[in-house]
């Protein structure tokens, strides 16, 4: 699908089977193309948080751990995420942050690795926190972190764990999870996948791919709110592994208050401390929007939105921008990125004009597509505005060059 005119883009929106989901979101009057960084507020999450604060906490107080089911939130929310990532509910838990969960599953993976293997393999373009956590795990476990621009070529019998992000955060390039996992397994290595830029935006099949471990966040395409709780996946054959953060919620009987740690059976041993009830309740409510969503349709619309942006940027901005993302939807996540030597002020000028994307160093303009609320006319109009900013050099003003703390 493509559109040469705005009327054609509007016609695509009118025929869109996902269009009615837009009403579930409480969207301000902007073109929002940054759901791959922070998903917008859903109306259901707004209402749930008000109920949790005003009624469950305000009136129920401590009783709400039982009467409102707070204690069951980690597994209840996991059951909603599981079908989005191709997993059984018993293999997913919602807890902590992505970084903390990565620490847990990397440590567990090393404990499950074949004897003598102490290398974690990744790529230098992986998301920095993943590399930082891997450095820390390697240092504490007497292991080593190795980086390769071609991790498949670097796989050998010294590798314990291959750690990759399915969709690259800068360019949107997508790994073939099944093919990469099979390659790792052929040399006896385990896999850890980061799903931060794929869960909720694309069909993911962890079980079908044979993945060993995975982590992901709740605040991007899952729309759980800033700093929303994260999730982790552990394949059934690894659920007896030792994870190093032996907190009381991961205990077999947390309210027995025993002095020694006894891990829970199954995925619940990957819990740590007391869950953040308000944040987890917001994520719980936000996930209801996926109840009747076909992720194949989501992926198809995502590809069409991205193709439209690429075609219009080629036509209107080709002298200014270089495509950083794959052109083929088969190897691309739900985002499109372009390079510009003054990417930061260009993005700031675009945001000031009412089109919100984001910038990633050193020169990336990044645009995320969330098909449940992103429209074809949004993409059409966004490129028109971007083209005007570039042609008139509206970005080259002092206020757009000043760096904020968050880019």
UniProtKB/TrEMBL annotation:
The protein's required cofactors: pyridoxal 5'-phosphate
Catalysed conversion reaction: L-kynurenine + H2O = anthranilate + L-alanine + H(+); 3-hydroxy-L-kynurenine + H2O = 3-hydroxyanthranilate + L-alanine + H(+)
EC number(s) per entry: 3.7.1.3
Gene Ontology BP term (one): L-tryptophan catabolic process to kynurenine
One Gene Ontology term of the molecular function aspect: pyridoxal phosphate binding
Claim: Hydrolase is one of the keywords in the record: yes
EC main group: hydrolase
One GO location term (cellular component): cytoplasm
Annotated pathway: Amino-acid degradation; L-kynurenine degradation; L-alanine and anthranilate from L-kynurenine: step 1/1; Cofactor biosynthesis; NAD(+) biosynthesis; quinolinate from L-kynurenine: step 2/3
UniProt keywords, alphabetically: Hydrolase, Pyridine nucleotide biosynthesis, Pyridoxal phosphate
InterPro entries per record: Kynureninase (IPR010111), PyrdxlP-dep_Trfase (IPR015424), PyrdxlP-dep_Trfase_major (IPR015421), PyrdxlP-dep_Trfase_small (IPR015422)
N6-(pyridoxal phosphate)lysine PTM sites in chain numbering: 220
Sites where the protein binds pyridoxal 5'-phosphate: 98-99, 127-130, 165, 194, 197, 219, 248, 274
The family this protein is said to belong to: Belongs to the kynureninase family.
Assembly, per entry: Homodimer.
Role of this protein: Catalyzes the cleavage of L-kynurenine (L-Kyn) and L-3-hydroxykynurenine (L-3OHKyn) into anthranilic acid (AA) and 3-hydroxyanthranilic acid (3-OHAA), respectively.
Listed PANTHER family: KYNURENINASE
Protein name as annotated: Kynureninase
Gene that encodes it: kynU
């Amino acid at each position: 699908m493509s559109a040469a005119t705005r009327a054609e883009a509007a016609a695509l929106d009118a025929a869109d089977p996902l269009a009615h989901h837009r009403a579930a979101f409480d969207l301000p009057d902007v073109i929002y193309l940054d759901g791959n960084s922070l998903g917008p507020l859903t109306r259901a999450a707004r209402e749930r948080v008000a109920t949790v604060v005003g009624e469950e906490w305000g009136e129920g107080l401590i009783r709400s751990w039982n009467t409102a089911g707070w204690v069951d939130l980690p597994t209840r929310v996991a059951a909603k995420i599981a079908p989005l990532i191709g997993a059984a509910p018993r293999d997913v838990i919602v807890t902590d942050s992505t970084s903390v969960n990565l620490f847990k599953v990397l440590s567990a993976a090393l404990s499950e690795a074949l004897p003598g293997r102490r290398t974690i393999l990744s790529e230098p373009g992986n998301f920095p926190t993943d590399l930082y956590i891997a450095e820390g795990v390697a240092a504490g476990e007497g292991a080593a972190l190795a980086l390769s621009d071609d991790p498949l070529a670097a796989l050998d019998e010294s590798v314990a764990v291959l750690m990759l992000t399915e969709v690259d955060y800068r360019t949107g390039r997508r790994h073939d999870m099944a093919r990469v996992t099979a390659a790792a397994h052929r040399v006896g290595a385990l896999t850890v996948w980061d799903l931060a830029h794929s869960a909720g935006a694309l069909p993911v099949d962890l079980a079908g791919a044979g993945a060993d471990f995975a982590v992901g966040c709740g605040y991007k395409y899952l729309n759980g709110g800033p700093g929303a709780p994260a999730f982790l996946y552990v394949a059934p054959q690894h659920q007896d592994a030792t994870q190093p953060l032996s907190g009381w919620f991961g205990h077999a009987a947390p309210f027995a208050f025993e002095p020694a740690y006894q891990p829970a059976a199954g995925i619940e041993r990957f819990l740590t401390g007391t869950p953040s009830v308000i944040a987890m309740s917001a994520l719980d409510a936000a996930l209801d929007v996926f109840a009747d969503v076909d992720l194949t349709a989501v992926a198809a619309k995502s590809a069409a939105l991205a193709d439209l942006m690429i075609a219009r940027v080629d036509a209107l901005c080709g002298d200014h921008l270089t495509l950083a993302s794959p052109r083929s939807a088969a190897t691309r996540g739900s985002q499109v990125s372009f390079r510009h030597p003054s990417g930061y002020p260009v993005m700031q000028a675009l945001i000031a004009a009412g089109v919100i994307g984001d910038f990633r160093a050193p020169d990336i303009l990044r645009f995320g597509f969330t098909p449940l609320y992103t429209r074809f006319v949004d993409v059409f109009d966004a490129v028109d505005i971007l083209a005007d900013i570039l042609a008139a050099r509206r970005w080259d003003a002092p206020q757009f060059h000043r760096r904020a703390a968050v880019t």
